[in-house]
Amino acid sequence: MGVDSTLDDGHRSDRAAAVIAEATGGARHDVALVLGSGWGGAADLIGETVAALDNATIPGFPAATVAGHAATVRSVRLAPGKDGAERRALVFGTRRHYYDGRDTQAVAHPIRTAAAAGCRTLILTNGCGGLNPDWPPGTPVLIADHINLTGASPLQGASFVDLTDAYSPRLRALAREVDPGLAEGVYVQFPGPHYETPAEVRMAAILGGDLVGMSTALEVIAAREVGLEVLGISLVTNAAAGISAHPLSHEEVLDAGRAAAPRCARLLADIVARL
After folding, report:
1. Quick check: pTM over 0.85?
2. What phi, psi does 253 have (nearest 5°)?
3. Which residue of 51, 140, 249, 269 has the smallest Cβ count within 10 Å?
4. Residues 6+ apart with CB under 8 A from 154
5. Is 196 a catalytic residue?
6. pLDDT tens across 161-219, in order?
7. Phi, psi of 250, rounded to the nearest 5 degrees
8. How many angstroms separate the CA atoms of 155 and 220, rounded?
9. Exposed (0-12), middle (13-18) or buried (19+): which is 59, by Cβ within 10 Å?
10. Which of 184, 196, 200, 229 is catalytic?
11. Pair 92, 43: CB distance under 8 Å
12. Domains located in the chain, CATH noted
């Protein structure tokens, strides 16, 4: 189902959240996860899937345009909270990429829908190129900050959102409790869909980047606008251009994701259990 252009994005998000609530039987959800390349197995470990919705049934949600992504939204029952109340997670099996149509509102729509559904925590994952030779393919890295090189923002008008702690220090500390060996780095979002050139990768390093990819930063901006606390984790699926000794390919990304899937899924499940 396409986006209704007669409604503003806030209304579309409310409508999408209402569809999710009715279809899942969950009046509210607590945490949302976006599963990028290599992270798909996490949904099976974090709890019991109560319902799985095809994206086509949710207003404004994307079809899967990337191999290895699933065009579904799962409602997953988590362990009860400290007060004994039921908790649920929304698990997005794919995302809208900026390169799909260069529409930042479409990129932000699932994030805003998660907030409208009651979520207060957002975990974003992705597969990316790594600039640090100490991080071979298969290495998960906490995102400490980002550099947005898309030249775009999902915000419109005088919406001055503070991004000083865009990636929650509290949630990053919690993730390191689960896995003290987790490294941290700065993620650089390029517009894509082409891979970065070696010169662009060198530029990213000069700017302070450690990871390069084609997602996440725009989603984080939208998340902070609606008050979501954000944790970002990248999976290094390949060495970036100019660092890698061979040409880049999406098949390499998929292979690295498959190899790292068990560790990534367990890491996410353990983090969610501590929320």
Report:
1. yes
2. -60, -45
3. 249
4. 104, 105, 107, 108, 218, 221, 222, 225
5. yes
6. 999 999 999 999 999 999 999 999 999 999 999 999 999 999 999 999 999 999 999 99
7. -70, -25
8. 11
9. buried
10. 196
11. no
12. 9-274 (3.40.50.1580)
